[in-house]
TrEMBL record:
This is NAD-dependent epimerase/dehydratase family protein. It comes from Jiella sonneratiae. It holds the Pfam family Epimerase. Belongs to the NAD(P)-dependent epimerase/dehydratase family. Dihydroflavonol-4-reductase subfamily. The keyword Hydrolase does not apply.
Amino acid sequence: MAETRVLLTGASGFIAKHIAFALLGGGYLVRGTVRSRDKGEALRRSLASAGADVARLEIAVADLLCDDGWDAAAEGCGLVCHAASPLPLRQPREKFALTPAAKGGALRVVAAAARAGATRLVLTSSVAAMSYGHGRARGDAPFGEDDWSDVTSKSISPYAVSKTEAEAAARDAASKAGLDMVAINPAVVLGPLLDDEFGASMRLVRMMMRGKMPAVPDVRFGVVDVRDVAAAHVGALTAEGAAGRRFALSAGSLSLMEMGQAIAAAVPECRGKVPRLRLPDLVVRLAALVVPDLRAVVGELGRGKGFDTDPARRILGFAPAEAARAVEAAAVSLMQRGLAG
């Protein structure tokens, strides 16, 4: 393992940085792809500051929307973690707007990995590829690896569509290429930052800390710590029995009100800023008629989705910290870095 090189795509992303940190700590060689050399140098500084052995880190430039660079990036890599995928801070209006980059990028990575002779590809997917568009008739059964989101649903978000389409396409392409593929499907990923860059999930916590969400809809989300997600990726690279499987990762569900309470417990300065009121469902439904970002929320009102994490626990050794701890770690990290104000 000490000389095994892992290709990690989208290495400057929130989850991917933690995967890189875990891989380097596990003795792997890591080749991380980024969209520019500047992002690569920033990644190297962030990982070094966190204590990683960046002498084992290489940087490669490649873009999900372009063919150039992927064969060179994959050359000599026996294992691949494909973590790159678009997750904008605001959802576009067009349902399939994010799909070309997500799906096309996944297919480029699968093809390059197969040509390079990689033995396994671990893809960072999401529970968004499992649990959306099913409607209330499905009941309360937990979502798991046999479930796929319905991209034809009117309530599904462009992000969920892109994750579903990308995972399905990568799975089919990997099978045809004879490449073992494992999908990691985490719920909302929170936890400590390794630098000052953060994405949509952490922005939610930041908005609560800044008092931007005094009233919230009655929705619940599965939550999982980014460090547990990274550990699952590393485990999936070599775990027996993982090939061809999809692993849901969640430490439990929290309402937005409960997330606010966890923030207040971890950062007392924010007690007067976190959500204090729950919006009536009717208000949310009416607002969704004019605010596109709320349309995906309507179908989740009053629901608490569960996820079957037993396969991840048995095969990948997934043993997550409590969901509230991930929220607390995120809040503390934002405060310590001066990003909560």
